[in-house]
Specification:
Length: 141
């Protein structure tokens, strides 16, 4: 991992940030990753979880992620056929990026809450031990 951000004067195809941005661009891609970090998902489960995504866009994004070697697609020969999607080892390497995005998103949400709501949120998080060793997709069971 680079020690610092690459700061080329121009955005070229050799820029690693441009390469990552090409994969992560679009409204739904990071949310597909979020869902797949929870484990293997069927196409229909992804469609329900990603309320508002069109079947065409979901299929395009999944195909692109599969073409990039980030997602594995498994077709189960049943009637009707079932399709399952799982992150590959390469796809799992995006976890630190999504964890950072989640932290940044939480900071943005907290910054827009009135002070009284922030105080209540902080006390609830403290009681639950939030933020201590949390991992993306982990659930409290």
């Amino acid at each position: 991992m680079p020690a610092s951000l690459p700061m080329e004067a121009e955005c070229t195809p050799a820029c690693p940030i441009a390469a990552a941005s090409e994969i992560l661009s679009g409204k739904w891609t990071t949310l597909i990753f979020r869902d797949l970090f929870r484990g293997t998902r069927r196409y229909s489960e992804l469609q329900v979880s990603l309320a508002g995504i069109s079947p065409r866009i979901l299929a395009e994004r999944l195909r692109m992620l599969e073409d990039q070697g980030l997602v594995h697609r498994k077709v189960i020969p049943t009637v009707p056929p079932r399709t399952e999607y799982t992150l590959t080892e390469k796809g799992r390497r995006i976890e630190p990026v999504l964890v950072a995005m989640a932290g940044f998103g939480q900071m943005l949400q907290e910054a827009t809450l009135p002070e009284a709501d922030r105080d209540g949120m902080a006390s609830l998080e403290g009681m639950a031990g939030a933020g201590e060793g949390a991992r993306l997709g982990a659930t409290a069971e």
